[in-house]
Amino acid sequence: MKRTLLRGGISILPSGRAYTNLLLEDGKIVSTDASYETAADEIIDCDSHIILPGAIDDQVHFREPGLTHKEDLATASRACAAGGVTSFLEMPNTKPSAITIDLLEAKYTIAATKSIVNFGFYMGATCSNLDQLKLADNVPGIKIFLGSSTGDLLVDEQAALERIFAETKLPICAHCEDETTVRENQQRFGPNLKLSDHSRIRDHKAAVIATKRAFELAKRHRHRFHLLHTSTADELPLLEDASPYITAEVCPHHLYFSIDDYERLGSLIQMNPSIKTVRDNEALWAALLAGTIQVVATDHAPHTLEEKNAAYPASPSGLPAVENYLALLCDEANRGRCTWEQIASWTSDAPARVWGLVGKGRIAVGYDADLAIINPIRAKEIRNELQFTKSKWSPWNGVTLTGWPVRTIVNGQTVYIDDCESDQGKIISTQPQRRLRCDHHRGGFWATKDGIGL
Questions:
Q1: CA-CA distance, 296 to 339, in Å (whole number)?
Q2: Comparison of pLDDT for 269 and 447, the residue scoring more
Q3: 384: buried, middle or exposed (CB in 10 Å: 19+, 13-18, 0-12)?
Q4: Catalytic one of 58, 299, 331, 368
Q5: pLDDT score, position 154
Q6: Quick check: is 47 catalytic?
Q7: What confidence tens digit (pLDDT) does each residue in 195-226 have?
Q8: Nearest partner of 62 among 389, 346, 410, judged by Cα
Q9: Is the peptide bond before 252 cis (omega within 30 degrees of 0)?
Q10: pTM (2 d.p.)
Q11: How many CB atoms lie within 10 A of CB 219?
C-alpha cells in the first residue's frame, strides 16, 4: 500500500486555502493536517505551489470510435493529464453514436485500456431510443442535441422530448440552438456564405429559443438539467430565474473570443454554438463570477488543420482546449480576475456534484487523490507543436500564460510532470485509470453544495 506525502503546498480545501501537508494512501486522501509528518514511500515537496482538486472536464469530444484521425482516447487523456484534468465526461457523437447500452459500454471498454485519467461517457438521445435511455445506469447523464451540430444526433420533436424528460432518471444536458431558426437563417443569407456569417446563422435568437424550451421541459417535469456552453448574454436572465433543477456552464472560447476575432483566427474559432460579441464575453464572465453559471468546461472538439482550413461552410466547427483551459484560469487568478477557490469550484467541485461523481471534486479526507499541482509563477507559451492533442494546434497558439500544472496526480499516482526545464512536460505513467462512479440519488447539485459531497 503506497503512501505519498505532499509537503508544503497551499491546498484549496472546501473551507478555503490552507498551507498544509496532504497524505495520500491507496489512491485516497487520508490527511490534510498541516502538522502531519509520517514515514512515506514518496515525499513530494510542493514548495508553496497551489494544489487544486484535479479538474473534471464535463464536455469533451475525444473522437473514439470512428474519428480517430482527429483524436483518440490515448492522445486525449494525455492532453488531459498535461492540463491538470484528472477526469473527463465524453459526448456521444462518435461513429457509431453511443445511443444503445452496448455501444456505450463499448466506449467504456476502449477507455479501460487507453485512458490515463478517469473517464465517463454520456448516452445520446434520439427520437426512438427511449427504452435504452431508461436502462442506462452508472453513467453521468443523457445528451440531447436540440440543434444539429457535429454528427447526426438531433431531437427536436416535442413529443420525443416530453417523453425523455418525463420517463428517464439520469440528468440531462443539451446543445441548445433552435434548429428551425438556424435553418431559416441559412436560407435567408443564401448560398454565398462567408465565415463571419456563422455567427449570424447560429445567432442569439437560436440559442435563447432552445434554452427556453429546455428550461420549460426541465421545470415542468422536475428533471435535472444542465445547460452546456452558454454563449449569449441573452440567456443569462433565464438562468437567474432558473429552478434548483437547472445548472449551467461556459467554455473558454465563449469567454475569450468574439466575432471581432474571425479576421485574425478564421475558422480556428468556428464553433457551435457560435462565437458571439465582446458584450457577450463580458456578460458571461460576470455571470460566472456571480455564480449564475457554475461550471467551466472546454467542449474540446479537435479537427485536423486541413479540415479546419476548408472554405466555409465546409470547415467543421470545434477546437481543442482541454490541455490549456486550467492554465487560462490560473492566469486569470494571477491577474486578480478570479480566485483559486473559484477555479476549484468551477472546474472540479461543481461538475462533480452536477453529475454525481462519487469521491471526486474536493481535497478532503476520504476523497480520491486526484490533484493538480500548480506552479503559480510558471510562465509558458502555448505552441502548436507542443500540444499533446493529436490535432497539434490551439487557437491560443503564441499566448503566454502564467500559472501551469507541474504535476498531475490521478488516484494517488503521478501521471504528468513538468520540471520547468523544458517547454513541454512529460507523461510518466500510461497505466489506464478508472471508470467514474455516478450516484444520482443523493440530492443533486444544491442539496450537496455545503455538505460532505458525493
A1: 14
A2: 269
A3: middle
A4: 299
A5: 86
A6: no
A7: 999 999 999 999 999 999 999 999 999 999 99
A8: 389
A9: no
A10: 0.96
A11: 17
